[in-house]
Amino acid sequence: MLGLGSKTKLLESKLEIYEDLSKEMLDKLERAVSSIQDNSNKVAIVLERHENRLDEGDRAHDAIMQVVNRVEDRIEKIERRTDENQKMLIIGAAVFTTVITILQILPNIGLTLTPVKKPSMIRGAGTVSFNGFN
User: Fold this and answer.
1) Structural domain count of the chain
2) SS3 letters for 6-47?
3) Domain range holding 25?
């Protein structure tokens, strides 16, 4: 029976060693899982911040596009006004040129806007004397 007791003690010592090893491994696994959870939480926070920044970027992009669209509309409006003003300027210049041309042609065809006064003179009248004075 001595052999059986020593084998039992040997098995018990090996069992204790395995229990200690399994406790150490379980402790290491728990620490690893905890570390992985912490890192996962940190990654989630970083991703949330990144998404917030992307959302802010999208809002800024939309605001910039609205401003660009308003500027484009204003530029188109200014271009239309410029075209209208250019047409009016051309029409005004044409009318002015036409009036000047007509005013220059009228005297050549015998028409005048104001009558020309011809100096008047009595012909045949010589010198007139008043009471003997000359």
Assistant:
1) 1
2) HHHHHHHHHHHHHHHHHHHHHHHHHHHHHHHHHHHHHHHHHH
3) 10-106
Can you give the pLDDT at residue 58? 96
The closest alpha carbon to 102, from 93, 91, 112, belongs to 112
The one-letter code for the residue type at 33 is: V
Band of the pLDDT at 15, cuts 50, 70, 90?
confident
Asked, for residue 44, whether it belongs to a domain, the answer is: yes
The DSSP string of 76-118 is: HHHHHHHHHHHHHHHHHHHHHHHHHHHHHHGGGGT--SSPPPP
